[in-house]
Amino acid sequence: MAAIRQEKVAELIRRDLSVLFQQNSSSWFAGMFISVTQVRMSPDLGLAKVYLSFMAVPDKKVALEAVRQEGWRVRKALSDKIGKQVRVIPELNFYLDDSIDYYESINNALNQ
User: Fold this and answer.
1) What whole-number distance in Å separates Cα of residue 7 and Cα of residue 9?
2) Which one, out of 9, 27, 28, 97, has a CA that is 20 to 30 A from the CA of 63?
3) Which CATH number fits domain 4-111: 3.90.550.10, 3.30.300.20, 3.30.2130.10, 2.40.128.590?
4) Over 70: is that where the pLDDT of 11 sits?
5) What is the C-alpha radius of gyration for the chain, rounded to an integer number of angstroms?
């Protein structure tokens, strides 16, 4: 179970990363629609696992790799936003959130 501080920092990062992706996706990621579904923090708040969902993207793994390549820029922009609120800007590890795809496959299987 995550500590209250971990949950607060995770929600802060999720909210601010969502805004960053919304504002800068056209210049950083060729206009991909990226949503941050979940952020999990390590106990020392030094590592953030960021789960992303991509919509209207033909190959999600290529899109995730593009985000990983620009991870330094995302972390820098995040530090500009939350630098005064947290002691250390965590390392960002990006993962593909495939829960929507899983839901669709289960829904299609049930409807057949």
Assistant:
1) 6
2) 9
3) 3.30.300.20
4) yes
5) 15
